[in-house]
Structure formats: structure tokens, C-alpha cells
């Protein structure tokens, strides 16, 4: 495979980013765009994206994060490859009651957001690394960390070292760098898994992101390109095993029933997979000169599709904090500036994580009192344009 990046060896960088997924690569590009020397450490080069092999992991990508990627010339490549705009959202409860609806026209936009494959985002972000002058250490994993008031020193498993003023942990929920820095996390296992697949439906998806709440958990049906849809079906662990074991016809029947046939009969057109669901929050997003972003800092329930959006907002907030300090010829790495960024991000991320946790608890239940409450609540919110507009603006980051 032809390399997309130039691998070099700087003596010292301003920033070393560990982890080359969507959030890590975007962080490297955002800070390189401020004329910082940035090194990215990644265990393996990501697989090339292929339109013939859609990535089962998709995101409901928000407008503010599209603007972030546009700022370092990566979003255009995503748009030119394959994205699916969604213009509407419909949310309702299986127990009845009203419907919560969002429409692009009501908020003065052409779309509410886009459904984008993880693999495509990573591919286009990596294509931008060389243009931005980001040094890449690959394949390499972090094995050791030393830090003091002057900076950080990382020891890599290839025997080399990386020195920088600041290190950024973007290496996922099990982050090695976060652990080496002493970052403690709180975890809650939902006892659920998200079953994902691509499907075809009897009726068009209408450029609409659909979500039906069931006692077992929410079922999201997201519009995808070429008339397909992507599903994220939250189920208790045992029920997820049963659904994964079904043959294609049995799976199609169960899925169509769970969605109340709102889009007609459904048919799987890809393999199925499942991932465990949990809430995980780091106690602090700064540990000396190590900053923690993305899934390394916060893992949330996927019911609102905000996981990657929150991670990219960590990046955007850091970029803005660095730019503001540099505009005043101030040192952006001082402890009080790093702590201010961390406090602001921890607040938003904790609110989001616990809000999604509460929604999941309320709607993933067949208890009488919760069942009687939740449908009318959705209906009430749907009848108040100011509420729906505010909810969308928060999710969209605008």
C-alpha cells in the first residue's frame, strides 16, 4: 500500500497526538493549521476506504464539525466521495403518545447533518496529514511517559522517543496514554449492545433519521446513500445474541416488526455486527501536560449519535484556546490555560453523557409509570417549536 504520509523524525514537537482515528487525526490537523509542529503516533496505517465496502460504523455528523474539517480542507473530499444528508428527524415511542420531529426548513438549513462512514472520514483526514506537514510515527505504540514543567517524553515500542511541549491522548476508550498519565475513569455498563447493519427498506428513507424507542432500547434507522439505510439497534446482551444468530429472513422479520413497518419490509444487505454499550468519563481531561480527548475522555450512549461530535468539539475548543493565547503572544501551554479548556469540555461532556443515560433509562423500560410518561413528553416537546429548535441547535453545535 502506498503511504499517504511522510514519516520523519523531529527532535522535538510542539504537540504529539497519540491515536490516528477521526478525533486524533482532526486534532493533529487543527493544531498544525496554527503553525504548530505536530507529531502523530499511530499503531497501524488505516485501511483505505473503498466505496464497494461500506463501513458499518457511521456517524450522524453535525454542521459545526463539518466546518471544522472544512477549515483544513478535508470535508470537501468527504462530500465528493459519499455522504447522505438528512433533512428530517422523527422520534417516537412504541408505547404511543406524540412524535418529536425536526425539519431542516424550520431551522433555515438545507440539511440537519450528514450520515458519514468512519472509514471515509479517517481516509480523507489521513490524506490531509502530509499537506499539513504533520510528522507520523507509524507503526508505533506508546510504552512509557515522562513529563515535567517543560514538556513530555514518550517512549515508543519501536525503541524511539518523542518529545513535545504537550501530549494529547486520542487513542480510544482503553487509552494507554491516559493510563500512563494517571487518568482515572468512571464506567457504567448498560448491559446492552448496539447491533449494526445496512438494510434496504420497502419505502424510501425520505432523507430522514428515524428513531423508535422500545422497552429493550432504541432502534435508529439512518438514511444512507444509494437508497440504503444504516441501523443501530440497542438490545440487552442476551437479546443481541439471539438477533445476531438469526438467518437473514428471520432478522428481517424481527427488524421490520421492531420498527413497526414504518418504512415497509426491511432486508439486510450487509453482515451484522454488535458492540457493547457503556458510559465512561475521565475524571479530568488534563493531567499535567497530557490532554485527553474523544473516546479516551468520554464514551456515551449512541442513542443521540453524538460520540464523535463531542470528540471533535474537544478539538475545536482546544484549537480556539490555542489560537486565542497565541493572538496575545501568550503561552498556550500554561497550566491555568490547559485547565480552563479541560473544565469547559468536562462540563459539556458530563452533561451530555448523563443526559443520554437518563433518556436511555426512561425509554428502555416497560414500567407503567415511565411508559405513561414518555410518550406525552415527546409529544409535548414536538408541539413546542422553541424546544425542538433548541434541542437541534445543541446537537448541531450551532
Automatic annotation (TrEMBL):
Pathway: Cofactor biosynthesis; ubiquinone biosynthesis. Belongs to the UbiH/COQ6 family. Its cofactor is FAD. This is UbiH/UbiF family hydroxylase. The keyword Electron transport does not apply. Signal peptide: none annotated. Residues 13-327 form the FAD-binding domain. Keywords: FAD, Flavoprotein, Monooxygenase, Oxidoreductase. The keyword Transmembrane does not apply.
